[in-house]
Amino acid sequence: MVRWDLLLVVFLVGVFWAGVAGASGSEGFGEDLGSVGGGSRVQGSVGLTAGALVRGDGLRMHFGGRGDLLFGRGSPRDYGLGPYLEVLTGWDDISLGGGGSLLVPVHRYFPLVFSLGGYGRYCSGWEPGVSGQLFFGSRSYNYHGHYGMAVGMTLQGRVGMVEGGERALVVALQVDGEAFAIPVIMFVNLFREVAR
User: Fold this and answer.
1) pLDDT at 135 > cutoff 90
2) Which pTM value belongs to this model?
3) Right CATH number for 4-195 from 1.10.3720.10, 2.40.37.10, 2.40.160.20, 1.20.1250.20?
């Protein structure tokens, strides 16, 4: 049997490491993607989510990780469109999903991001589903790189595509992976300086 808790830990470590690479200016993150044209750039973000999951069987804690790429943005005032991947858990299950996101710049520093996609949920067996999400919060535009930080609130609706499938609502706080990576980067740099 697959250990979904271990899979979640591996994914979250990957999200964390991607945040470390993005925060440290690691070459390679998005370097090959470059500009899309017209001065627009690819902007990526990874983050962790924590909040509440409401299902027919009650209220429970929700945790997850999410990464996305947005194409077509040349400034904070531009729309963006791109793919996302996510992993979520309500402790008794795990969901792996992906789809598309549209960033709407309703405010220079606080855009709305609409996402629509599919997922596979494993509880006692695999169940396909569709999800829609609204993100509102700070989504930075990085003029000098390909990583943009995102911190805000998410509201997600989830519908299982089988009879008696999941019907859920998720309200969560999304915190950027760099928030967890920055202390690690500081200590790594401190030890590098001490070792010299």
Assistant:
1) yes
2) 0.76
3) 2.40.160.20
